[in-house]
User: Fold this.
Amino acid sequence: MCLAVPGKILELGEDESALIEIGGVKKRISLMLVDDARLGDYVLVHAGFAIEKVNGYEARRTIELFEEIAKLDGTA
Amino acid sequence: MADRLVTMAHGGGGSRMLELLEEIVFPLLGQASDSPIEAEDAAALSLPGTRVAYTTDCFVVKPIFFPGGDIGKLAVCGTVNDLAMRGARPLYLTLALILEEGLPFEVLKQVIESAAQWAKQAGVEIVAGDTKVVERGAADAIYINTSGIGVIPEGREVSIKGARPGDLLLLNGFIGDHETSVLSKREGFDFEVAIDSDCAPLHSLVERMQQAGSIHALRDATRGGLAAVLKEMAQSSGVAIELQEENIPVREGVRGVCEMLGLDPMLLANEGKLVAAVPADNAEAVLQAMRSHPLGCDTAMIGKILQGRKGEVSILTPLGSHRLVRMPSGEHFPRIC
Amino acid sequence: MKYVDEFRSPQFLKGQLEKIAEFPLSARFMEVCGTHTMAISKAGLRPLLAPKIELVSGPGCPVCVTSAVDIGRALALAEMPDVILATFGDMMRVPGPKGTLSQAVSRGAAVQVVYSPIDALELAVSHPDKKVVFLGVGFETTAPTVAAAVMMAEERGLENFYVLSLHKLVPPALKALVEMEEFSIDGFILPGHVSAIIGSQAYAFLPEDYGVPCVVAGFEAADILLAIYELMVMCRDGAGLGVEYSRIVRAEGNRKALEVMHRVFEPADADWRGLGVIPGSGLQLREEYCAYDAGAWGVTSPEPIKDSGCRCGDILCGKIRPSDCPLFARSCTPDEPFGPCMVSTEGTCASYYLYDYAEGEGINPPHQHGGE
Assistant:
């Protein structure tokens, strides 16, 4: 449970709404459930709402960890 | 024309119906055709061959206008493609209309114009038809039935049954475009995506493929998507199919819609895609021939036919394990889980 | 798609699998969340990890754990003449006492599939003569969105919007699982998106009070494999609580979403298919919002529930595998499902059927690691 996809905030609207983009698809969603979301932020979108902001720093760290493990495979 | 609406009388077989035919249907179909319109009960035709392909299809798409097409275009291309999938040269179509009372004349005109234009493009003649009107609410704007006749050249045998182990599978481009474009315009699906329906007549592509090499099995992927057509092919041919997922072309926008709504691109409807099982030794030649055609420039080799369990279609994951593709049930819904 | 594609690179997977293969430990882990079940199946991980690591699916598919009685209530609402039932698509094909919602439509019931509870609000606006009842299914990921919709309805003065809350909470269900006598799971792969809302700290009781290792995982195969490796380390070194999905999940969760959820909903007892009634494991609308509560209409399930031999309950607790159910792949298939585990695309049985199983024997026999 729970299909949620990261989308980029393209426009901020009235009433805590935003236009987001996910892989070429644009949709209007509600920001009622997140604090302090800004233009250009990536948010996790579920059922028409942003439910959390994506932490870019942690995302990069996770990828780096994946890459390290992948390298280990090559030198094993 | 702007305010006029279709009424019950227009379907009544009398003077009102004749008016509708003479104002809209005959002129538009006439413009697209070389032969004069004859108002007979049936078209008398000569066929250049005795092996005939004959098909029929009904079109109830909603909404009737969508990015990349409309119900008129769909009605022509859908039937032309059914004929093409038997290797036939499409020749003649019939066009039967069920109109909802209250349909604006302007809308009808646009649909007929589109059908006429695409018939001309596909090189087919619309030679017979019918018009009925039903009460408001009994049909959704306009329903269309087309039937088609084509001739299969001597010695040509194309069906879905002929796939053999060792054959390679060719797909002429991106899947899921049609259904995505229709969904994007449907009420309640409030998203924007720049995807056009892939609706197109495929017979000239099939001809080019036939000239390049032999085709063992052929079918177009319509409702039920790529999954349905591959399951049908595997079942009818008594073979198993293994697909390479990363080779199946899906546009970014289609992927985005599928990720958001929890849909599977393999199940989405197409209107301009075909899958061919071709013997391995001429696959490259057929692939190149397809890529040289405007409707095949994104052709991909997506998998192969195996001995295996009859009717089984599986996807080879990057990790080397398999997962099964199942026959879609006929309805799929967006999900949140 | 950013933050998706880069995590899907197949090059990350081989090294992870090797690390797991080399680690001197065998274990049985439960992935709680249905979306994880499906991700594992789609990537073909189960046979590649077996027999060393056995992955068991848990009760984290909100569709699957919806009781037959509750489905019956939804059906009864849908059949009321002045009601439009708005629902997520997931619920359409779940069998209830009188068939599915999809079948009810062909009998004349007004059911509308929506992507968001906000779409249900718009339905209420455009159909002022109807009562629009939103079928609230889902865990803590979804409940805040439904709560938000109720608050929007209040703000807009809508008088024909209602919710039938079948929402459930994950931590009480996990507690009920670990307290079962037959519980024999070595660690939990915890749901990433529920955790985005409730925070990883909500599961601290599992390692602390029950000694069960837990890792909150993301949904790409690489995320799941890393979480499994982290669990194996905990099995060796001592139970703990890890967060692999750190790009989304914080220890304290999403405070704002939790506030919205708690403003509209309060905990209540809930009946889980397979687990029975778990105290405080569901959500009901608070008194202040009773005007929006379709649960207060007193609509009941139309018929007593017949026992069809369906063993979804035992499957949801990880007691048996789908192939152990006598109905699996015989009279219960994705096209003719008996129970919700087969209907929902992320139901355990459906996942196994589609991805892990072929007639006669498994399409993927357990992978034999060299030398073991």
Q: What stands out?
A: The interface with chain A takes residues 190-194, 251-253, 255-257, 259-260, 262, 335-337 of chain B (CB under 8 Å). Chain B has eight helices and 14 strands. The helical segments of chain B are 15-31, 71-84, 105-122, 177-184, 203-212, 225-237, 252-261, 280-291. The two ends of chain B are 49 Å apart (CA to CA).
